[in-house]
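User: Fold this; tokens only.

Assistant: Input:
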Amino acid sequence: MNIDTKAYLLLNFAAVDVGTAKQILSQAGSENALFKLSRSRLCSLLPAEEKKLVHIADLRESEEFRREVELVEKEGINIVTFFDESYPFLLRQISNPPLLLYAQGEKDLLKRECVAVVGSRRASFYGLNVARSFSCQLARRGVVVVSGLAYGIDTAAAQGALEEGETIAVLGSGLLNIYPPSNIPLAEKIKKGGLLVSEFPLFASPQRYNFPRRNRIISGLSRGVLVVEAAKHSGALITANFALEEGREVFCVPGPVNSPTSNGTNSLIKEGAKLVENIDDILSEFKWVLPSSRAPKSNNLSLSSAEERLYSLITPEGTDIDTLCLKSGFDIMELSKILMDLQFKGLIKEQTGKVFVRCV
């Protein structure tokens, strides 16, 4: 690791923002000086930031920081600083950009056109299906889908994008402290076919105040934000508000008027967000030169025993969900997951009233 990157890593480790980092480095004379100046000289650079400089002086000699540097190199993690050419152009434009990003996976995705897909952690079957389907279609068109790796909509969005393309997952914790733990297998897949991003030190825990900071990065990387399902007071709406403040597009999927997880999205639509029914409603807002729709990655329609069992119960005329639940013996959560998987394989589709019909 070169000395410049190490200096920015130290400043970020001390929770220094871009403006203060510029001031400190200007007074120090160089990035190298952060490690060469005596403690007393370093702490006298900016009287107004004396407490922060004392913290930096302590950290630069600490075992904690030494380990951070060692693990960044060992784990093959890229450090992209605000002062690098590779720092995302759109993210640089926001009011409080991160000083740096820890990035693990395909770093070049930071240069691609992105759309964020966000929503409720307690998503309905409808919301999960839409998030996964829209993300899959966007990825097939060459758009990088950005989400937050949370339960619910974020997870469905990442899974859908990986079906046909790439995704960026922005964490509210460190890259070596994946949250939620149940998404560790998904994070491993993203490293291979996408990008994990965080501004927090490698082992940072998922503190409540980290998530609004994460959300500003999600919207900051993206030309637009698609809100699939969101309650009136939710993190997804925070992301949408960041997008509006930065002049980005906000799109919403309408939901049932009696659904708590659609209250926020329906309110955004009333306030002027664009109602979307398909991905063309999103892509039409941008003058992107995108590749033609990619062929699906796989036409493999092999079914698990559970999928075969459920598929055999669905008729070409249609079978309602209550009948499927009764005849299959699956509980509603398991049934919903299998139905969603069958829809993604193009074998069934949902009609009004939770009725499912065969497509082939």
